[in-house]
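thought: user wants a sequence for this fold. calling inverse folding tool.
action: design(structure=
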């Protein structure tokens, strides 16, 4: 796909400009309405957008675009990292060609930054999925959002002797980042995220509280597993879960799930969710401990 955004016209009366941080609420509202139609619930939080946008070096002036109808944002797109994009169109403005224009803009923006591929997640079978498929985007991987069934509990598994699960201390943040990045880079083809970028989307994410970052430490006090909890109005979402490679098979991740969901419930959560994708091979594990799939997503990408 080499079509340039400039060859695809937007309907008359629509204008475009790069986004600014002041647009985070408007972007959230567009994504939320799209998710409500496509998956039946709102999974995004404005804090997710703010966290991404405050990462060091992320330049909205070159990496984002908004489509406006008067002062109202009706669509947006951005390029984050080397090959990741995100976009949304308000459901009541679908069918006007906005999504196609944004897809082509995303390709051009990624190409200008030297990328050879760009892709984004979309709900399987959604309007966005069908559009990207028609534009030549292929599926890179599948992902799933899972919820702990009402009344179900993750089976407890005792930790090995001397291991402890608890909230992380401030001086353990860098160790948490190391465990997460080492684990994720085993299956994710990308550059290592700087510690500062990790901070922007975790410990500096709006609403973060110290209890949101959980760790398992070994008998020497070293961090060997970690989890990040994001608490919405009712739902606890496990945004990150990682165990050091040499510590796997000891039940540390399962202990973190039990701990994370219990602590979140103490802070008002009535639902518990997490997500995983086909690169990790963890879907069966989560289903085995009583979680069920609530939505299926595909990451579609196109070579530039």
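)
observation: tool returned 304 residues.
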């Amino acid at each position: 796909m080499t079509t340039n955004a400039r060859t695809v016209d937007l309907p008359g009366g629509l204008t475009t400009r790069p986004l600014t941080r002041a647009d985070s609420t408007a972007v959230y509202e567009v994504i939320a309405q799209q998710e409500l139609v496509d998956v039946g619930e709102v999974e995004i939080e404005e804090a997710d957008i703010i966290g991404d946008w405050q990462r060091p070096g992320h330049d909205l002036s070159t990496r984002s675009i908004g489509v406006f109808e008067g002062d109202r944002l009706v669509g947006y797109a951005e390029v984050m990292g080397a090959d990741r994009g995100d976009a949304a169109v308000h459901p009541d403005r679908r069918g006007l060609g906005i999504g196609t224009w944004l897809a082509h803009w995303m390709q051009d923006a990624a190409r200008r930054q030297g990328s050879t591929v760009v892709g984004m997640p979309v709900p399987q079978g959604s309007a966005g999925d069908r559009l990207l498929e028609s534009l030549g985007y292929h599926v890179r991987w599948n992902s799933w959002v899972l919820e702990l069934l009402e009344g179900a509990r993750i089976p407890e598994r005792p930790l090995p002797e001397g291991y402890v699960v608890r909230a992380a201390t401030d001086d353990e943040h860098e160790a948490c980042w190391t465990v997460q990045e080492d684990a994720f880079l085993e299956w994710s083809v990308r550059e290592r995220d700087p510690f500062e970028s990790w901070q922007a989307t975790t410990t500096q994410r709006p609403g973060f509280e110290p209890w949101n970052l959980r760790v398992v430490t070994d008998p020497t006090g070293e961090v060997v597993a970690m989890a990040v909890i994001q608490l919405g109005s009712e739902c606890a979402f496990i945004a990150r879960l990682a165990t050091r490679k040499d510590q796997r098979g000891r039940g540390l991740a399962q202990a973190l799930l039990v701990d994370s969901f219990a602590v979140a419930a103490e802070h008002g959560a009535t639902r518990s969710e997490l997500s995983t994708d086909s690169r990790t091979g963890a879907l069966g594990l989560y289903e085995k401990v009583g979680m069920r799939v609530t939505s299926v997503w595909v990451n579609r990408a196109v070579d530039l």
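thought: summarizing for user.
answer: Here is the designed sequence. The first strand starts at residue 14 and ends at 17.
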